[in-house]
Design a protein that fits this description.
The complex is a heterotrimer of chains A (294), B (101) and C (288).
Chain A lengths: L5 E6 L7 H14 L4 E5 L7 H4 L4 E15 L9 H5 L5 E4 L4 E4 L9 H5 L5 E17 L2 E8 L7 H10 L5 E5 L6 H7 L4 E6 L3 H16 L3 E9 L5 H9 L3 E6 L2 H8 L4 H4 L1 H21 L2
Parallel strand pairs in A: 1-8, 1-9, 2-7, 2-8, 9-10, 10-11
Antiparallel strand pairs in A: 3-6, 4-5, 6-7
Helix pairs in contact in A: 1-11, 5-6
Chain B lengths: L1 E6 L17 E6 L4 E6 L9 H11 L4 E4 L4 H9 L3 E4 L5 H6 L2
Parallel strand pairs in B: 1-4, 4-5
Antiparallel strand pairs in B: 1-2, 2-3
Helix pairs in contact in B: 1-2
Chain C lengths: L1 E5 L7 H11 L3 E5 L6 H6 L2 E8 L2 E6 L9 H5 L5 E4 L2 E4 L9 H5 L5 E6 L2 E8 L2 E7 L8 H18 L3 E5 L6 H7 L4 E6 L3 H16 L4 E5 L6 H13 L3 E5 L4 H8 L4 H4 L4 H16 L1
Parallel strand pairs in C: 1-10, 1-11, 2-9, 2-10, 11-12, 12-13
Antiparallel strand pairs in C: 3-8, 4-7, 5-6, 8-9
The structure holds iron/sulfur cluster (4 copies).
The site of one iron/sulfur cluster has 14 residues of chain C, from α4.
Chain lengths: 294, 101, 288
């Protein structure tokens, strides 16, 4: 039954709140329970999940390309229509000097210039944007990593391609990119439920509010995990109470956890109590999701 | 010969604008007629690619030198290709820059 | 002079360090280019004096009165942003890239283009000088534009008020916006932490600063969380001839300062950590 697919995005307003800590441990626990699932690392600028999930075997690498125009100057009449159509200043054009140049870094691959040219002077080639790497843990579970090439202007296309690759799994977790910009939106827009990971500090609270504003605008249901609980202050709890936002889990600040994380270890491998807690987290999310979609 | 200078406003007393691609005006000085035209930079508010767009603009005005405080990477390589000479100046007024020519 | 503080990713304590630098410098223009997070705003609570609209791009909208649902635009849109549902064609705002192609080919001239004008930059005063900060509307992409607008405004203010130092709190990541935050500055400070992912991000960040020929130094924050990894990072920087300008221990006072909405150097000026940060800042000033 395809319609049972559940997609959960694990996100945070800013980086470093422990989003990857949550997503990799959750994946680890569910994977061990032999569930059919994929974790998609959508933080394509800095994909980190693989550093923790070392056991997966690289199964395949898929290149993500973008179309970029190539001008055949033997056919070009220097009419300039393509440059006029390009809304990204990606075609450098000088009529008198007969200069036409595609600035590939600026091109979004929209195809407008090809449509503009009535002299068939424009063809297209592929430019590499990044990769989607699939690491297999069992025949039923995989880590799918989006990774952009350094210097590529936007990670959105690579993220979309990675998410598409995960469509055959029953449960899909997204490790969402930080911020509330385009990459974040393109990831959570595909999710059924969003888990926001935050810290109990004024920064954490302000970022959380910003993320929640965005999610409200998108009509998404969500819950919160507080990481490094005990540091900072209590204001965040008041906020959750007041707004009636479910607190899905709380991870206390513990130097040992920070140390093991810094070494690339998985807490749920070291400690059976945490294994149980993450397993419970999944059930809580399912319940919350069930309630919210009723 | 024509020279383009980045300018904050449209008078000879104006200071140079520090950046190239997103400067407010270009002062185009013609050494033969010794006149200066101030033209708003059409690339100023581009979301992306302001540098190249500004190069396109001044090149279409037929300048052979351009004076600015800094040039971005893309603009630099295009100006090189078009053999438009880049001159660096900082904190001067347009009148002061023009005196050098 | 312009000093930019960046980090490969968020959460390395970058903003706490920029805040400390900004309060150590008696007169400063603080350019908050971390437009996704309002950290420095919360900390310094600047009095807003000026607001400027930033047009961050364009979006297409279908005028339903004119559209005949021929579907032609759907085939042209490369961003899968146009959908047909119950004989009605519409554009999903989230997916539209603003290329304008649909509006050019629509036979009915039924597609309007609107500016995305919800993003803002603000300028104001705080106790150590002036502050410029930006706010992106949700979902608007942080291309370098808003960052360069913030820097532009900061420079203008610095000139106007005769302030010599600009401190830039850069955006996380290594995308276009991070590049816009550091291009042409006098000194880049990269804040990292001793974790596997920290090292990994640092490598990618340094790739960019070295290829742009920028004067770069590294701070290892929370260095005692994993001394072994700290040494690895140091070794890596040495090998790349990049100076590790300071190492800071994990210090709960930093969080306390945050909760009290103060920079660490204001909150606990005599604490060891504040002295360490003070030393780092003097070194940066001396080398540029
Ligand atoms: S494909 Fe689009 S963005 Fe690229 S050059 Fe052509 S019109 Fe410009
Ligand atoms: S539209 Fe075609 S013919 Fe005209 S300038 Fe562009 S490539 Fe040349
Ligand atoms: S091309 Fe124009 S008329 Fe046809 S569906 Fe699109 S908007 Fe409507
Ligand atoms: S403007 Fe471009 S991206 Fe947006 S809907 Fe039209 S064709 Fe698609």
């Amino acid at each position: 039954m395809r319609n049972l697919i559940v997609k959960i995005a694990i996100a945070s307003g800013k980086g470093g709140t422990g989003k990857t800590f949550i997503s990799t441990n959750l994946f680890n626990v569910l994977q061990k329970q032999e569930m059919n699932l994929a974790l998609v690392d959508c933080d394509a600028e800095e994909p980190n999940a693989k550093l923790f999930l070392t056991e997966g075997k690289l199964k395949n690498t898929y290149e993500v390309n973008q179309k970029v125009p190539v001008v055949d100057e033997s056919k070009c009449t220097y009419c300039g229509k393509c440059a006029e159509y390009c809304n990204y200043n990606a075609i450098f054009f000088l009529k008198e000097a007969k200069v036409i140049n595609v600035l590939e870094d600026l091109c979004h691959g929209c195809g407008a210039c090809s449509v503009a040219c009535s002299y068939s002077a424009i063809s297209e080639k592929n430019n590499l944007l990044g990769y989607v790497n699939t690491f297999e843990f069992s025949p039923k579970s995989a880590l799918i990593e989006a990774r952009i090439k350094v210097g590529v202007y936007s990670s959105v296309n690579v993220i979309k391609a990675a998410i598409k690759k995960a469509s055959d799994f029953n449960l899909v977790l997204f490790d969402a990119p930080p911020g509330t910009g385009c990459p974040f939106i393109q990831t959570v827009v595909q999710a059924d439920y969003v888990v926001l990971v935050t810290e109990p500090t004024p920064y954490g609270l302000s970022d959380l509010k910003q993320s929640i504003e965005t999610l409200k605008g998108m009509n998404k249901s969500y819950g919160v995990i507080i990481n490094k609980a005990g540091l900072g202050d209590e204001k965040i709890y008041d906020y959750l109470n007041k707004e009636n936002i479910p607190l899905l889990m709380s991870v206390p600040f513990d130097k040992n956890i920070a140390v093991s994380y810094s070494k690339g270890e998985l807490l749920t491998d070291l400690n059976s109590e945490w294994e149980e807690k993450f397993s419970q987290l999944y059930n809580t999310i399912r319940e919350e999701y069930g309630n919210s979609s009723n | 010969m024509k020279i383009a200078i980045t300018s904050e406003r449209n008078s000879l007393e104006s200071k140079m604008d520090t950046r190239f691609g997103r400067c407010a005006f270009f002062a185009i000085y013609d050494t033969e007629t010794q006149t200066t035209d101030f033209i708003p930079n059409p690339a100023k508010d581009s979301s992306e690619g302001a540098g190249p767009k500004a190069v396109e603009f001044i090149a279409s005005k037929g300048v052979s030198k351009v004076v600015a405080s800094e040039f971005g990477g893309k603009a630099k390589s295009l100006l090189d290709k078009l053999q438009i000479e880049m001159l660096h100046e900082k904190d001067k007024s347009i009148a002061e820059v023009i005196q050098q020519f | 002079m312009e000093i930019a503080v960046i980090s490969g990713k968020g959460g390395t304590g970058k903003s706490s360090i920029s805040a400390a630098f900004a309060t150590l410098q008696k007169e400063v223009v603080l350019a908050d280019c971390d437009v996704d997070a309002a950290n420095l705003y919360l900390l310094f609570n600047p009095v807003c004096e000026e607001e400027q609209i930033v047009i961050s791009g364009q979006k297409a909208v279908i005028n339903q009165d004119k559209c005949i649902a021929c579907g032609e635009c759907i085939d042209y849109c490369r961003f899968d942003a146009i959908i047909k549902k119950d004989d009605k064609v519409s554009i999903v705002e989230t997916f539209c890239d603003g290329c304008l192609l649909c509006s050019r080919i629509c036979p009915q001239d039924a597609i309007d283009i609107i500016d995305e004008d919800k993003s803002r930059i603000y300028a104001g005063s705080f106790k150590n000088g002036k502050m410029v900060y930006g706010r992106l509307a949700p979902g608007e992409e942080n291309t370098g534009k808003i960052v360069s607008k913030v820097r532009e405004k900061a420079k203008q203010i610095a000139k106007e008020f005769g302030i010599k130092t600009i401190i830039i709190d850069g955006p996380p990541g290594i995308g276009c916006s991070a590049i816009s935050a550091i291009i042409g500055v006098d000194s880049v400070v990269v804040v990292t932490e001793p974790t596997l992912s920290g090292l990994h991000d640092l490598k990618r960040t340094l790739e960019i600063t070295t290829s742009s020929n920028l004067q770069t130094s590294v701070i290892i924050n929370k260095c005692d969380i994993n001394p072994e990894m700290s040494s690895k990072i140091e070794a890596y920087c040495n090998q790349k001839h990049i100076e590790v300008i300071g190492k800071l221990p994990f210090e709960p006072l930093v969080v306390e300062a945050m909760v009290k909405c103060q920079s660490i150097t204001d909150f606990a000026p005599d604490a060891e950590i504040s002295k360490l940060i003070g030393n780092i800042y003097s070194k940066i000033r001396a080398t540029t």
